[in-house]
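Hey, resending since the last one bounced:
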Amino acid sequence: MKVAKLAGWWLDNYVNKREAWTGDLAQPKLGLGVEQWKRLCGHGSPENRVTAIIHNGATVNWNASFSALKASNVDSVMDLLTAAADSASLTNFVYVSGGQTPKVQEENDGRLAEEISRSNGYGQSKFLSELLVKEYSRMIAPSKQRVCIIKPGYIIGSREDGIAVRDDFIWRLTASCAQIQSHSAEDPEAWLFVTDVDRVADAVSDCCTNAGQNTCEQSVEMVKILDGLLVSDFWSIIKEQLGIKMQSSRFDSWMHQLNTNIEAQGEKHPLWPLLLTIEQGQGRLGVVCTPPEMRESDRQRVREAVRKNVAYLIGIGFLSRSNELPKVQQEKIETSFVGRPFASRA
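The structure tokens again:
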């Protein structure tokens, strides 16, 4: 409710339309009570049965191992699939994935598995969960259930309110680059997969329509959100919004500047817990690929969203229009966040 009020879309009459359950993704059956779990499995009176499950939560810890994240990121998915298989009322199952950059071309699970094996524990946990959802759809899901996996890139605030999550990787990196007025050089045609939260919400909503219609002959329905912009355009917007000069530097030179900046700030630095991730990805945000086709209205929407997010982060003091340190400094940057999906550099 607090987040909804902050975003400006909360209405008081929503109180009677929502029901919140306290749980824990890392616990068996999501830490729910017996009666709650029964309702999730489709038991009880018809008006109380769950007809759609949207799984949009995870523990996002860039430094944790797969085994440390398995309970919350993999076992929770398995529990929900078990509930879905047991339910006679469930018509829609939607899983919002992350942990890897979307692929424009058709994906091959074998090649993806090889790629993910070199990734971090978070990416591995999300990939395995995807495989579980795919196998459930192919082998177990009844024909009346529509099973979807949504795969976005980085997710940012909408173009209307621009409410950004400053803990997200894309903004941590942006803030760090702004401080040293330099970013790691990338191919000028590299594509940054990024979309606004409203686009993801629309995709989730679409996946919850046409209830009871499995349109893919029992195979999971993959919904890739390939929105984005050129990395060079992203940094141009950042420079314009902040009113600073920002040079594109070779990785070794940029990394030296970054390390000096991190040593000066210590644990308060936005990239303090992400140094290994930065080094592995060489500070890149984009990937070299054939840019996906986008309508001009969608291109404009993404650019407006980026600008609005930057304006919001300036407003709360996370970004600065000069090379001074931002006004907002956390005592210690946390490395684990729950419920916010976004893609890492896989």
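The radius of gyration is 21 Å.

Sorry for the duplicate.
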